[in-house]
Request: fold
Amino acid sequence: MITLADVQAARTRITPHIRLTPIMKLSEAREPLPISADIIAKLELHQVTGSFKARGAMSRFTTMSQSEVARGIVAASGGNHGMAVARTCFLGGQQARIYVPSGVSPEKVISMEGWGAKVTIVGDEFAAADAAARNDASKTGATYFHPFADPMTVAGQGTIGLELIEQISEFDTILIAIGGGGLVVGLGTVIRALKPSVRIIGVEPEGSPTLKACLDSGRLVSLDTLSSKVPTMSCRQTDQQIFETAQEVLDDIILVRDDDMLDASRWLWREFGIAADLAGAASTAALRSGQGAFKGSQRICLLVCGAGLEGTGR
Reply:
C-alpha cells in the first residue's frame, strides 16, 4: 500500500504543520502494570487536535492541487479524523464537511465546529457516515478524505514510526490500537523496514475485531455485528489493501473489552495525568491484562493515540 519512501516524503510535507510528540516511561506507579518489561509511551494525544489523525489529514491535503482544494473536502469519522480534517481545512482556507455516527463524543463535535467544519450526524455507525460522505463527494465534486483507506493518509500516520525510532533507540515490542487499520499499517510499514525484529501487536475491541476477523479467515470479511461503544475503533469492514499489508506487518492482535479500555484510561489519568480517550488507552488495556503475548519482552513501546475526558471523570 505504501513504502518507507512514501512515509519519509510525507514527513517532509507535514513537519511544518504538526508537533513532535513526547515519550514517557510509565514507571513509579502506585498500581504498576503486571509486566516486568520497561514500558515507554509515545504520547500522540499531545498532537494537534489531540490525536495522530492530524498527520494523515495533513499528508493527504499537501498532495492536493489548488483546484482540488477549491472543490471542497468531506470526511466521515468517529471523531478524531474529523477534528484533524476540520483543522487541516481551516488552515487551507476551506470549510470541511464532516459526517459522524450518533455515538461521536459531543466534545469532539464542538472541536470540529470550532475549526469551522459543518458536522452532520448520520446513523449509528461509521458505515452510514461513510456512505453519506461518499454521496456528498459524488454529487459536489469534493475530495473525500477517507480515515484509513487512502495511501497518503496512511503514509502520514506512519511518520510516528520515524519519530519513535529516533526517540527510542531500542525496543522489542510495540502495541498499536486498531480502528480501520490505517495507523497500524502506516506504523507497521516503517517498523518492518527499519526494525524488522520488533514484534508488532495490534489491539482491537472485542466488540469490533475488524482486522482479527480478516486475518483469522485469510480474506477480507465484514463483521455481522458491532457491539463496541468506542466509535473511533468501531469499523464493520476494513480496506482490501489495509488487510493485505496488515498480513505482512502484524505479529498478533489482542482483543480488549470496552470496560478494560475505560479502566486503563482512568489508570493513565490517576497515575500519570494522561487524559486518553478509550482508543488512546487501548494499548495500555492490553498490557494491564497481563497476557502471555508479552513474555520475553524487555522494552515495550505503546502508543497513546488520542486524547479524551472519559478517564478523568469529567
